[in-house]
Amino acid sequence: RPGGNPQIDPALMEAHLKATGGQVVTRFPPEPNGFLHIGHAKAINVNFGYAKAHGGVCYLRYDDTNPEAEEERYFTSILEAVKWLGFTPYTVTYSSDNFQRLYELAVELIRRDKAYVCHCTGEEIKAHRGGDAKGPRSDCVHRARPVAESLAEFQKMKDGRYGEGEAVLRMKMNMQDGNPQFWDLVAYRVLNTPHHRTGSTWCIYPTYDYTHCLCDSFENITHSLCTTEFRQSRESYYWLCDALGVYKPVQWEYGRLNVTNTVLSKRKLLQLVNAGLVSGWDDPRLYTLPALRRRGIPPQAINNFVREVGITTSNTTIEVERLDNQTRAYLDEHAPRLMAVVKPLRITLTNLPEDFSESLTVPFKPRTPAMGEHTVPFTRELYIDASDFRLEDSPDYFRLARGKSVGLLHVPHPITCEDVELDAAGEPVHLLCRYENGPDVPKPKAYVQWVAHNPAHGSPVPIQELRVYDRLFRHNNPLDKSEVPEGWLSDVDVDSLHRLTGALVEVGVWDAVRRWTAAMADPVVERAHVENLRFQFVRIGYFAVDKDSVLPPSETVASGDSAACTAAGQLVFNRIVTLRESNKK
Ligand code: ATP
Ligand code: MG
Ligand code: MG
Question: Which of 1, 48, 261, 449 is most buried by a 10 A CB count?
Fold first, then answer.
C-alpha cells in the first residue's frame, strides 16, 4: 500500500471485524449535485469491483452535505446509472442520515480540545494560512479560546444565532504542518438552506473533510477508495478518526479517468447546455452516463473500457476511440443484424407474378445459431438503399446501374436493372429489374441489403429520422490552451449532429400514402423499445432507438398490424458507432 497502513487500535479493529465478519466493505460516494460521467464509471467499477473480487459488499452513499447544490433528479439518476452499469448497492445510504451523530461527535471533538469555533472571515483564514504568497502561517485568536466557550458558541451556531460566514467550527490540527490539509480545516459552517432530506432541521452543515471519513467509519468501510487529489487528505482523514477514537478505514487512491474530445466537469457541461450547444445533459454527444445510455452505448462496453484502461495512480486522458472500439466489439457480438435501407429506392421485379412471395430464413448473426433467426419476406416489390444505385455507371462500380446486376443479401439469385423511372428533378424513383432465376445467372460482384413490402408478411418499418454524431469537440484536449487558444467553448463543432430525415417514399401497398421517411427497416425493428434494443443495420452502422421516438400504442404492436403501428409511431434512431474504425461518418 502506498504510504503504509495506518496504526490500528486493536479494540476498534476487533469491533470492526465483528461488524463486518472480516468482509471487504467499500462505498461509491457521489455528491448528488450532477449527473455521473464516464469518469465515475471508473469509480463505480473500482469500488463495486474491488468488493466483488473479494467477496465483499459496496454501499452507494449519497454524500449530501451541500444542500445548495443538490437536487432530487440527481439522486434518481445516480442510482439508475449505477444499476444500468450492472452493479447492485448493498445498501443505499445518505451522509445526511448521520447529521445528528456527526453533530454529537463535533461536540465531543470540542470537548477533547480538538476543535474550536472561529469567527475569522474567509480572507482572514486564508491570511493565517500564509495567503497566496505561501507566507508564514499563524494561529488565529480564536484557536486558544477555552473549550467551554467553543461549546457555547457551537450551540449558538446550531441555534441559528449566527448568520452565514459569521462562525465556523474548525478542527484544531497543526498550522505549522507542511500539508495544507492540517491547517485547521473547517468542520461545520452556517448555511440557511433547507436540505433535500432534513428540511430546515439544521442551519449548520458538516463539510466534506469532516463528514467523509466519519461516514466511512460508521459504515465499517474497510477500503476507502478515492481519487489521487485526496492524497493529502489521507492524513487528515486518519487524524480525525484518531482524534475521536473511532474505527479508521484504510484510504487508497487511484487516478482519475478522462477521455479526449470532451469535457466532463459539471460547470462546463452546464455552460454547454445553457448556451444551447447541446440539447441537454443527455445529449448523445456528451459523456455523461445518461448521454451514453441514450446514444445506445452498451453498459458492458463502458465497463470493458474502464477495465482495459486499468487502475493506476496516474490521471489519464484516454483516446475516446478506445471506447468506440469496445462498443463496436460488444455490439459485433451481441447486436442482431438486420437489413435497413437509407433513402429507400423502390424496385419492382417485373418478371415475378404480382402475388409472388417467399419467406427467407435469415440468421440474426451469420454462423451464430445462438442468436436465433427470423423470416424475411421476399416479394416482387422491394426497396434498396439509394446509395446502391448509380445513374452514371463506371467499370469500377459493382453495385446497381442500368444493365448491371447485383446480389441481394440472403436471396438465391441476383437482379439486373432493366429500366429506371426518374422524377421531375431527374432523380431515380423506381427501378424495373429482372430476377435472374433463369439458366444463365450472372455472378454478382457485390451484395446489397434490401427490404420487401408485403402486408401478409409484415411491412418494412419506416424510420423517420436517423441521427449521426461526430465529436462535439474538434481537438483531443479542448481545455488545453496550446491546442485551443480561443478557449474550449470555441472548439465546439456546431455541425456535429447530422439529422437525416426524409426522402419522400411511396410505401408499397399504401399507394395513396406518401410519408417522409429517412429509412426503411426489417419489420423486427418494430419490437424495438426505447433504449432496450440495439441493432447492426447491415452495411450501415450500429443503431439504437432514441428516446425522442414516439412508440406505437402497445395494443397495435400486439395485434401485429404493422400499418397501424407505423402510422401511430415515429421512430428516431441514433447511430451508436460506425461499423469499422476507419469510416469516420
Ligand atoms: P466531478 O466534479 O467531475 O463531478 P467529483 O469528484 O466532484 O467529480 P463526486 O460526485 O464527488 O465527483 O464523485 C464520486 C466519486 O467518483 C468520488 O470518489 C470521485 O473521486 C470519483 N470520481 C469523480 N470523477 C472521477 C473521474 N474522472 N475518474 C475516476 N473517479 C472519479
Ligand atoms: Mg462531483
Ligand atoms: Mg465532489
Answer: 48
Ligand 1 centroid, distance to 241 Cα (angstroms)? 23
Q: DSSP assignment, residue 472? A: S
Q: Of 254, 273, 292, which residue is a domain's last?
A: 254
**Is 511 inside any structural domain?**
yes
- Cα–chain center distance at 97: 28
Average pLDDT, integer, range 413-430? 93
Which residues touch 318 (CB under 8 Å, ≥6 apart)? 257, 258, 259, 260, 305, 309
Q: Domain containing 558 — which CATH number? A: 2.40.240.10
- For position 456, what pLDDT does the model report? 63
* Structural domains of the chain, count: 2
Assess whether pLDDT exceeds 60 at residue 477.
yes
User: Using CA positions, which residue lies closest to atom 22 of ligand 1?
Assistant: 40
Of 201, 219, 254, the position where a domain reaches its end is 254
What residues are in contact with ligand 1 under a 6 Å CB criterion? Answer: 29-31, 34, 39-40, 42-43, 226-227, 256-258, 264-266
> 297-349 pLDDT, tens per residue?
999 999 999 999 998 888 889 999 999 999 999 999 999 999 999 988 999 99
CA-CA-CA-CA torsion sign (228, 231, 232, 234): positive
Is the residue at 54 inside a domain? yes
Maximum alpha-carbon separation in the chain: 107
- Please tell me the residue having the least CA distance from ligand 1 atom 29: 256
Structural domain that includes position 395:
337-464+502-577
Is 68 among the domain residues?
Answer: yes
In a domain, residue 288? The reply is no
